[in-house]
């Protein structure tokens, strides 16, 4: 058994007596003679039940119970007392004790009380796990999909959500990077704080610094009052930089300094202000290529890219295309008060064949248009945008090659690498992952084959 009991009693012989009996019953026992030193061990360790004497020098059992309930309410506390009065029992229960046992201790009665406490602890842990599962399910409901890339993504989000480190989210435009960022925030310890997002490509360079750091009244012509920047608006929560690759090079050193020192100075201000935010950033650019071209600072990249997430493009998500299509159809049909049940088979085939360069955003817009135009109970091919209706796959067909058309292995590798790079919009990190090679190998092959 792994059930672990922590005993606190200033009588060493009592501790040793209890340890001997409880160990024989299959329990793991740790004991201490002083409550003050035991508290820290309990908080740092992994114990299932605390068994404490009531009358001890220094911190007594009631005070110890108060401390444990305040900091680790998941651990049941059982109080041992030689004074089996009603007042003693009431004092222990009011302090948050799970139960109390009188001295001299009847080992069988104590074993029954511990068994109930252990079952209570196990039930609390199970409820905690179920609540976490339900919460995780609720916050990821907006990320719809059953494909392997999406399942791997959701698993990664669950593992890193509570790690308070910077995350760089890579993915093509429209693939759902902000949705991923919001899911991370909702699963994190900062979920009750604000989630503030800024699209770095949508804010003019002249306004971006004021938007991020704020300004003091009179800092520039239109600064008629003090204004908090986004760093302070997001305090206690999450700040999300969308399209972080578009931050002007001249502003990047100031951003880096803010992230390293966790302080900002508003424009026109003399004093620095501390902030407490988690940084999430997203880009559809290959930042390592941007660094090589001197368009992005390497030190800022390392600061943002503590953990990296790659959001898969829609064309690599298989049947998720149809799941998302039905979701958008249901949403828009309800909004437009139309009775539409889904897709015709030919329509579904068109959606699956299309490459979706605009990813989920393009599919969402296409389904909104289709629902608006649909005159029947299912979406037909004619309801789709023309470029989807007329799309013909550019995939390479190797079945009809004659002998003269067969190519050298190097040529096939060059073509396939080029095809993958095109499919992922030039994102070398994603391309390397699909090809099953590291990025250095991919860069070497790009140079070798003179690919652009």
Task: Summarize the structure in words.
The protein has 19 helices and 16 strands. It starts with a strand and ends with a helix. It is an alpha/beta fold and 452 residues long. Helix 3 links the parallel strand 3 and strand 4 (77-81). It is elongated and about 85 Å long. The protein has a five-stranded parallel beta sheet, sandwiched between helices. The chain has a five-stranded parallel beta sheet with strand order 7-10-13-6-14. A two-stranded antiparallel sheet has the order 8-9. The longest helix has 33 residues, at 107-139. Mean pLDDT is 86; it is low at 395-405. The chain folds into four domains: 4-130, 3-Layer(aba) Sandwich (Rossmann fold); 140-310, Rossmann fold (3-Layer(aba) Sandwich), CATH 3.40.50.300; 314-389, Helicase, Ruva Protein, domain 3 (Orthogonal Bundle), CATH 1.10.8.60; 403-448, Orthogonal Bundle (Arc Repressor Mutant, subunit A). Helix 2 (35-44) runs parallel beside helix 3 (61-71) and helix 18 (428-435) packs across helix 19. 47% of the residues lie in helices and 13% in strands.
Question: Averaging pLDDT over every residue, what do you get?
Answer: 86
Distance between the termini: 61 Å
Number of domains: 4
Name the CATH homologous superfamily of the largest domain: P-loop containing nucleotide triphosphate hydrolases
CATH class of the largest domain, named: Alpha Beta
Give the C-alpha Rg: 31 Å
What structural category arises from helix and sheet content?
Answer: alpha/beta
How much strand?
Answer: 5-15%
Give the tally of β-strands: 16
